[in-house]
Amino acid sequence: MQISKKNTRQFRVATEIKKAISEFLLNNSIVDNYFIDSSMISLTEVLLSPCLQHAKVFAVSLAEISNSDARIYGAISSEDCVFFLERHAQKIRRYVGATIHLRYIPDFKFFVDNTSRQAEKIEQLIKRLPSMSQI
Questions:
Q1: 21-69, pLDDT tens digit by residue?
Q2: Could you say which of 111, 115, 120, 133 has the lowest number of CB atoms within 10 Å?
Q3: Would you say the pTM of this structure is higher than 0.85?
Q4: CA–CA separation, 83 vs 40, rounded Å?
């Protein structure tokens, strides 16, 4: 991702927001009916709008990253992580507001980061290609 002079602030604020949300997930145990361990959620990227009032937060389950070949029984999916984050978005927003001093705290929209899944699919397609010696 190339950053020009005008979005340097966007990048810096996005990095601080990512740190603050990560700290919140590690330090605050949220009682949840779905028994999701918030420390098993990894934030991969935060993208901010130019006005800094809207943020897209991309997340993935650590269980899916570490065991892409064999899923852990009972492990949460990335979709469950995003559902968990959306349910607790107001608590997260309050924590970010207390941690980072901005004029406006952005509204968060959470998304599943499919980068590792897409990379896995590409690797499988490459493995299916005939090798150069067979051509």
A1: 999 988 876 656 655 666 678 899 999 999 899 999 999 887 766 554 4
A2: 133
A3: no
A4: 14
